[in-house]
Design brief:
The complex is a heterodimer of chains A (155) and B (433). By secondary structure, chain A is mainly beta. Chain A is 6% helix and 21% strand. Chain B starts with 28 loop residues before the first helix and ends in a 6-residue tail after the last strand. Classes of the chains: A mainly beta (155), B alpha+beta (433). Chains A and B meet through strand 5, strand 6 and strand 7 of A and helix 6, helix 7 and helix 9 of B.
Chain lengths: 155, 433
């Protein structure tokens, strides 16, 4: 099932032309059932469990239950996103194991809408034919020296 | 438009079908549109098969690089050490440090084929080793808590499914190890793969020797005038990852603007060509409407093929003939030739794709896009008469690396009017020593 919708919580995003979950799903999976006015995942086998629909739903109506062809039942990972942080709750299948809670920032120091495209750097040579990019060379921090080759990760 | 996933059969074929390492939204559109335009492609034989935590495909990078964890076979053997003699066969690149991704796969697969599975990431040992460096008990507790948060964050940031799988199997990484495994093959020009368009390099890094071969005017322009590619869509530059793809996108943005300024006339496309294309795109919807009432169940109808069955057929061919998961990434010339025969039937049947909705229309075209990625892959593997990247694929009829003949780029071109493929060998020329 991967993502699923709790009927009591889903209000069909009444105020919007397109529901939030439908808008955000990168794989065209979330759709609104016009009769019940509730959303559902129309092709769960193609769900990546990216949690985009979970994070965007204004009423926290979307959750994910693990793919049953390899995930045992009973665990859950829930996300609650604010404009600054995301709160995660991980519940194990074994209820003797204490649930884990994590809070991670979703922005690194710059307020929403306040990012400066060129930071404080000059735009560069302003020549469309040159091989340098905007803010180069000042903006690429080359004064720190080249990256050491043995530090390059292979993923 | 990204790379290509689901060209091969994934390991999970039930609900977990969609749980590929690279997202299934990468449906081969980049390859299709560049090939269809007649652009030369490169390294289409190179696929990427990452090793990840088994089934949910959580990232292993933090474990290997940050926590300095090792992976072992089920009996405790360290395959990177035990199988090190194998590296001689793939010199010089096989001995480069850090070891290339396919070589690490290969050394692991040797143990798998030797019956020493499961393979484990020794998470508990790695955490213990770090905690052991703590000054006192209080410091040890603090360290453990930090490491735990980092380990979970790694999954929660990138691959939430892996966190669900750990929780569902009561896995606490400081207490027990976790299985790792090679995923299925992906086409991703940005990240340890290399497939993509053959694009012009930037002018400023060329040498006298490379100028003729690697540069033709605008940085990152394909061999088709005015068509540009970056990230997963451009080939022969495997180490871009996200920041490199982003930067390549910036380079393309700038050079495409320069191209437009130099060629500032609107292309004039005849309306009849546009109408023809629209009819071609919408055909699966018409196919469904025309035939859907011929049987009592629209899923089973001798007149057409629905996109779900189309992609299953594609994946089965690739899995069994082109070295997918169930073939342990092995193939040979005869298997590939047979695979091409079966792909030809699939290509013909694509004319009868039927879609009951816009969603299925999209799925129909995605499957066609993947099919072109598949064909260019098989043709390029067949063209390169050697094995160069064990761990990605192994040609049993040509099991060794042949630097005399194949230290070269394998390129290909497709002619949409005749359906002909042209295979081209291009020299490797070094810009740096
Ligand atoms: C789980 C995971 C972890 C990763 N970790 C790292 C990491 O730690 N560090 C790192 O550097 N890299 C990492 N990567 C790799 C990195 O994400 C990619 O290399 C990079 O995103 C590729 O960029 P791109 O722009 O070429 O493709 P993408 O980012 O895939 O963009 C392609 C775009 O094309 C769109 N598209 C597709 N088809 C069509 C169509 N037919 N029409 C119109 N639009 C279409 C897609 O919606 C998408 O927006 C990771 C990837 C994954 C999956
Ligand atoms: S975003 Fe939430 S409330 Fe809106 S339609 Fe989707 S599930 Fe319902
Ligand atoms: S989890 Fe992601 S892929 Fe799955 S339905 Fe939600 S948005 Fe779509």
């Amino acid at each position: 099932m991967p993502s699923f919708v709790i009927p009591d919580k889903c209000d069909g995003c009444k105020a919007l032309d397109k529901t939030a979950c439908q808008y955000i799903c990168p794989n065209d999976l979330m759709v609104l059932n016009k009769e019940t006015e509730k959303a559902f995942n129309q092709d769960p086998q193609m769900c990546w469990e990216c949690y985009s629909c979970v994070k965007i739903c204004p009423t926290q109506a979307v959750e994910v239950r693990g793919y049953q062809d390899f995930v045992p039942m009973g665990a859950s990972v829930t996300a609650l996103r604010s404009s600054e942080d995301i709160m995660w709750t991980v519940q194990f299948r074994d209820k003797e194991i204490r649930p884990k809670r994590f809070k991670f920032p979703i922005r690194r120091g710059v307020e929403e809408g306040k990012a400066q495209p060129f930071d404080h750097y000059p735009t560069g040579d302003d020549d469309i034919k040159s091989t340098t990019l905007m803010t180069e060379p000042e903006g690429i921090n080359t004064e720190k020296g080249p990256v050491k080759f043995d530090k390059l990760p292979t993923l | 438009m990204g790379g290509a996933v689901h060209v091969f059969k994934p390991r999970s074929t039930g609900e977990g079908f969609g749980r590929s390492w690279y997202p299934p939204f990468n449906s081969g559109a980049s390859t299709f549109f560049t090939l269809d335009a007649g652009a030369e492609m490169t390294c289409q034989e190179v696929r990427f098969i990452p090793v990840r935590f088994k089934d949910a495909y959580g990232p292993v990078g933090a474990w290997f690089l940050l926590f300095k964890s090792i992976a072992t076979n089920a009996y405790g053997g360290n395959y990177m050490q035990d199988n090190a003699a194998e590296l001689d066969k793939w010199e010089p690149y096989g001995k480069v440090k850090p070891r290339p991704a396919n070589i690490r796969n290969w050394l692991m697969m040797l143990d798998v084929m030797d019956g020493k599975s499961p393979i484990y990431m020794q998470t508990a040992d790695a955490i213990q080793a770090i905690v052991d460096t703590a000054a006192d008990e209080k410091d040890a507790k603090k360290k453990l808590k930090e490491l735990e948060a980092e380990a979970w964050e790694d999954f929660l940031d990138m691959t939430i499914s892996q966190a669900i799988l750990w929780a569902a199997t009561n896995t606490e990484p400081d207490k027990k190890p976790s299985e790792i495994m090679a995923c299925d093959p992906y086409f991703i020009g940005s990240h340890s793969g290399a497939s993509g368009a053959w694009v012009s390099g930037p002018e400023d890094v060329q040498t006298d020797e490379t100028m003729d071969e690697y540069f033709w005017g605008y940085a990152n322009m394909t061999t088709v005038s005015g068509l540009f590619a970056a990230g997963d869509a451009s080939g022969a530059s495997s180490h871009k990852f996200s920041s490199g793809s982003f930067t390549e996108g910036r380079i393309v943005g700038k050079s495409a603007l320069a191209f437009i300024l130099d060629n500032n006339t609107l292309p004039n496309v005849d309306q009849s060509v546009i109408d023809e294309r629209i009819a071609e795109i919408l055909k699966p919807l018409d196919m469904y409407e025309e035939h859907k009432d011929a049987t009592t169940d629209p899923a089973i109808n001798p007149n057409y093929i629905r996109p779900t069955q189309h992609i299953y057929r594609l994946q089965k061919i690739m899995d069994e003939y082109a070295g997918g998961v169930s073939a342990q990434f092995q193939t040979n010339d005869k298997l590939m030739e047979r695979g091409l025969e079966l792909l030809a039937f699939l290509k013909e049947d694509s004319e009868n794709l039927a879609a009951d909705s816009l969603h299925e229309l999209m799925r129909s075209w995605e499957s066609i896009h993947r099919m072109y990625q598949a064909e260019s892959h098989v043709r390029s593997m067949l063209f390169r008469e050697e094995t160069r990247w064990p761990g990605y694929y192994f040609r049993n009829d040509k099991p060794t690396m042949d630097n005399d003949n194949w230290l070269a780029f394998c390129n290909c071109k497709y002619d949409r009017n005749t359906g002909e493929w042209e295979m081209i060998k291009r020299p490797v020329k070094y810009i740096t020593q």
